[in-house]
Amino acid sequence: MFTTYEDSVLSAADEDGNLTDTDASRLLKEHGFSWWHVLADAHGINLEALASNNAEALLAWLGY
Question: How many angstroms separate the CA atoms of 18 and 8, rounded?
Fold first, then answer.
């Protein structure tokens, strides 16, 4: 079992730290967001990391 939500998200990532498109979209949806929200408010976030569904970048954008 995971001790934090972040750990559960990171464990779903592949060896490069990226989520599948489905997992990334589900993560955003669980928090009430879509990719439109991310792109509209991507200040200070590595867009290349977001484009590859990087779990750490998505968690950072969500405030974790």
Answer: 13
